[in-house]
Amino acid sequence: MSTIDGPEVLRIAHLARIAIRDEDVAQYARNLTEILHLVERMNQLDTDRVVPMAHPLDAVQRLRDDEITETNERDRFQRLAPTTQSGLYLVPKVID
Amino acid sequence: MHERTVSQLSAGLRSGEFSSVELTRAFLDRIDRHDSSLNCFISVDADRALAQAASADERIRRKEAGSLTGIPIAHKDIFCTRGLRTTCGSRILENFVAPYDAAVVERLERAGVVTLGKTNLDEFAMGSSNENSYFGVTRNPWDLKAVPGGSSGGSAAAVAARLCAAATGTDTGGSIRQPASHCGVTGIKPTYGRVSRWGMVAFASSLDQGGVLAQNAEDAALLLQAIAGFDDRDSTSADVAVPDYRESLMNELDGLRIGLPREYFEEGLDPSVAAVVEAAVQVLREQGASVHDITLPNADLAVAAYYVVASAEASSNLARFDGVRFGYRCQNPTDILDLYTRTRGEGFGAEVKRRIMVGTYVLSAGYYDAYYLKAQQVRRVIRNDFSRAFEQVDVIAGPVSPTPAFAIGEKAEDPVTMYLSDVYTISPNLAGLPSMSVPAGIVSGRPVGLQLIGNYFREGQLLQVGHRYQQSSSWHEQMPEGYRVRL
Q1: CB contact under 8 A, A36 and B315
Q2: ipTM metric
Q3: How confident is the model over B455-485, as pLDDT tens digits?
Q4: Cβ pairs bridging A and B (under 8 Å)
Q5: Contact B20, B57 (CB under 8 A)
Q6: Interchain proximity A17–B336, CB inside 8 Å
Q7: Using alpha carbons only, what angle is made at residue B195 by residues B153 and B236, rounded to the nearest 5 degrees?
C-alpha cells in the first residue's frame, strides 16, 4: 500500500501550487496516506476488461456552430481582479 | 406564515391574505432572530429581497403570477448571483461578486421567487458536516450541538428552522440528501444533467448536480419544475423533456416495485436508523408497493472510487483560483510561484487542500492508471449493478446516512471516518441517478431520512413516492423546538 511521507507531501503540494507550513507536513502525510489506503480498496475488484466510464449516460460532447456568441467584456471581468493596468492582469515579473 | 409550505404560501399570496413584501419581512425577521445561533446564512440582502418582493406583488396584482412568484427562498452559496457575493464558504472567494447569475438562480428569479440570501456550506461543497466553512459551522436546529450535515448544511438548517420557504443545494456525493436527512427536510438530487450546472461553481464536474431542499415532496416538485431542463450553456445538460412533476404526485403506488439493497443494511448501519427505514418501507407497502430484496454487490467500493474521481476533478477545477483574475491574493508576492502557492495556501482551508493534493497525486505521472482509470472502471461496475437492479424494481429504498446527525467536532479530525459516513449516498452520484431524502423518523431528538433512488430521469416517480409517503406520515411536518413561535 502506498505511503506518503514528508518529501512526497512537498512534491505534491508543489505540483498543486499550494504552500504548506512546515508544521503541517506530518499531518498531511498522515491524512493523505489514510485516504490512499481507503482508495486502494478498489484493488479488491478485478476490472481488467471493464471499459472506464467517463460519463454516467455515455453522452458525447455536443457541438455547436462555429459562430461568435460571446462579446468582449474585458472591463467588466477585470473589475474582479486583484490588480490590473491598461487592460492587463498584473503579476510579479515572470521574465527578466 | 413561516410554518406553511410553498404551495400554501403561494395560495395565501394569490388570495391576497398577505403580500410578498410582508412574507419576505417575516422571513427576514426570523433570520435576524435565529441566525446568530444557527449560522445558516453567509449573506443576507434585505434590500434586494424586498425589491424582488415588491415586483412579485406587482405581478400578483396583474394576475401574472406563477406558483413560485413571491416565495422567499435561499441559494446555497455556490450558485453565482449577480451583485450578491458568492463565497463557496471559502476565504479565497470571500469578496467575490459574480458578474452573472447561475442558470438555477436565473430560472427561479424568472419564476418570481424572492432571494433572501446565500446559505453556508462546506468549503467548495467538500464535506459532510458544514464544519469546513471559512464562515464557521452551521448548527442543526434540532440540536445546536449537532452538525446539520453537509455540504448543503446551511440550506437544510434554514429550511428546517423555517428561515426560508425552500432552498437550493448541490449534491456531489450526498450533499443535498445527507443534510436533508439530518435536518428533517425533503431534498432531491436529480439525474446528472437534469439541472444546468451553468454558474454553479464546479467541484467535481462529472458528479455535481443542483437540486432543492424543501419541507415536503410537493414543494420540491414545484421548485425542481422551475430549474429542470436543457441549457446549452452547460455541455453536459441533458436534452430530455421535463414532465409535469406535480401531475403525477397523487398517483397510486399500486404495482410499484421497491428494492432494498441488502448491502445497505449490513454492518455499520445504526439499528435505530435501520428501524426507521424499515418502518417507512412498511408504510409504502401498505399503500400497494411490493418490496424486493436486491443486491448492489460493489456498493462498498463506491467511497473509494469517489475519492479518486471527485478529488481528481477538484484538483483540476480549483486550479482556476490563482490570485490573478479574481478572488483572494496573498500580500507582497515575491515571484509568480510565490503568488500562486501562498494565495492558494492561505485562501483554501485544510479539507480543500487535502482533496486538491489527493487529486493531484492520483493524476500525476505514473499513477493515472492505478487510480483514476481504475476508479472510472469501478464506476462503470457500480452503474451496471444499478442497471441490473432496475430490471427488477422501480425504486430503491434505503438509509441516507448510517447514523443521525453526529456532534460538532466528533469527526472533524478524522477525514476518512467522515468520508465513510457517505457510504449510502455516493453510489447514485457515481452512476448519475436521481435520489431523494424524505423525513422518516426522529431518533433521540434528531431526524432521520429515508433515501429513495430512481432510474434515470425518473425524478417524478421519486417525488410521487415521497409525496404518497408524506400523505400517510407526519415526519415532514415536525419542527424543531424553539422555531415554532410566530413573531
Answers
A1: no
A2: 0.96
A3: 999 999 999 999 999 999 999 999 999 887 5
A4: 171
A5: yes
A6: no
A7: 120
